[in-house]
Amino acid sequence: MPRPISLITGASSGIGAETARALAAAGHDVIVGYGGNERAAKELAAELAAGHGVEATPVAFDLARPATAAAQLRAAVRAAGGIDVLVNNAGINRRSPAVDEDLESWYRVLDTNLTSPFALAQEAARTMIAQGRGGRIVNVTSVHEHIPISGGSTYCVAKSGLGMLTKVMAMELAAHGITVNSVAPGETATPMNGVPAGHPATAIARPAIPAGRPGGPHEVAAFIAHLVSDGAAYTTGTSLVVDGGLSLVAAEANAAHAGRL
């Protein structure tokens, strides 16, 4: 039986790299999508092929240009012989007060974090439908899919938009055996967040998070691996929050003052 083929964007480091490792360990051939870090993507592809005996191919994606990214997916899928899993993991972060935000930055974040994931999911879904064997799409959003943060107008809009796209596509694609879900991480110890690869999340104190620390990228990847497995065939249109309890404590700061005049 042929191995499933998975495409992961932003797979050269962080959550994407750990997801690639988890899926290769589960017997998937992996398209290792990357932006600017070609060397890391090639090293990871070699690691997966040597360690798990799967096909692993690094492919560049220009997510700042959605039409180009869609064409890159089509070429990668054609070369790989199909696609069974798409993980829209890549994204960029930004903080700026809404009154100071500029339209160039607004469009750049939305193109990278929302429009390109839509274009890739659309192309992947078309191929999955044509293949007739179902499929899995997982969009990596953020806890800010659900809760806002000051300075996050552009980022939060993109992530919440991707969360709603997840639900719409889940409804539309269910009849084809394709599930669509999102994973919404809280703070995660990754290079994008200033934490070097391999630095343990358990060594970083975060007193405001109930778990007392940020998450490790492998902890988020474990949820993604579950959602693309056969065991998650009945799970679609949901958002799995992986945040150590961060989103539970929004009212805590005010609780100390409640009831006072």
UniProtKB/TrEMBL annotation:
The keyword DNA-binding does not apply. One of its GO terms (molecular function) is oxidoreductase activity. It is an enzyme of class 1 (oxidoreductase). Its EC number is 1.1.1.-. PROSITE patterns: ADH_SHORT. It holds the Pfam family adh_short_C2. SUPFAM superfamilies: NAD(P)-binding Rossmann-fold domains (SSF51735). The keyword Zinc-finger does not apply. Keywords: Oxidoreductase. Belongs to the short-chain dehydrogenases/reductases (SDR) family. NCBIfam families: PRK12743.1. This is SDR family oxidoreductase. It comes from Streptomyces roseolus. The lineage of its organism: Bacteria, Bacillati, Actinomycetota, Actinomycetes, Kitasatosporales.
